[in-house]
Amino acid sequence: MEVLLGLLTVAPMSGYDLGQSIRTSVGFFWNESYGQIYPNLKTLAAEGFVTSKTERQDGKPDRHIYSITKKGHERLTAWLAVAPQPEIPRNELLLKLFFGAQVPAEILIGYVEEMVEKQRLLLQVFTETERAVRAREQYPDTPYWKMTARFGQLELEAHLRWGEEALAELRKIAKQQRTRSESRKRKSHARK
Q1: How far is CA 19 from CA 27, 94, 128, 134, 191, in A?
Q2: DSSP secondary structure letter of residue 101
Q3: How far apart are CA 38 and CA 16, in angstroms?
Q4: pLDDT tens digits, residue range 18-46?
Q5: Model confidence over 85-114: pLDDT tens digits?
Q6: What are phi and psi of 86, to 5 degrees?
Q7: How many domains does the chain have?
Q8: Is the same domain home to 113 and 65?
């Protein structure tokens, strides 16, 4: 719920607008689905943390625009003052690599190549995001947005670097596996 309060400090928004804002900003490191947004907004409104006003639209459903209240600011400030809890990341790719000796390296190469390609595309998004954030220098939130965008950019660069190193190692392993396989085939033919 705090993500909604935080985004409402930027500007009043509808539930749809909040979902779009999450996707293009904090969505790179924090997930909140539309299925969570609307019930959370109702709860926040019922508890007095946000207010809602209805905007009539011609030919479209009404929009409910939410704004953070003083009480909402106080809750957000209190939440921000509590140290974040460490989380244990879950990474299926790393788990599969950990047990990688059980399958041909070519399978793992495909997984890592796919990850590298996705990370490259995300890095382009972060580069564009950084430009967009720089264009908003007038906002007091801008230095904080820059820091989070830079974290994402550096993390993606680290993932790409790791991916290239892992691919080099996996390609060596795949070559060794092919050599052993060919050697076994030659020995098998020699025995016949």
Answers
A1: 9, 30, 20, 22, 67
A2: G
A3: 9
A4: 999 998 888 878 888 888 999 999 999 99
A5: 888 888 999 999 999 999 999 999 999 999
A6: -65, 145
A7: 2
A8: no
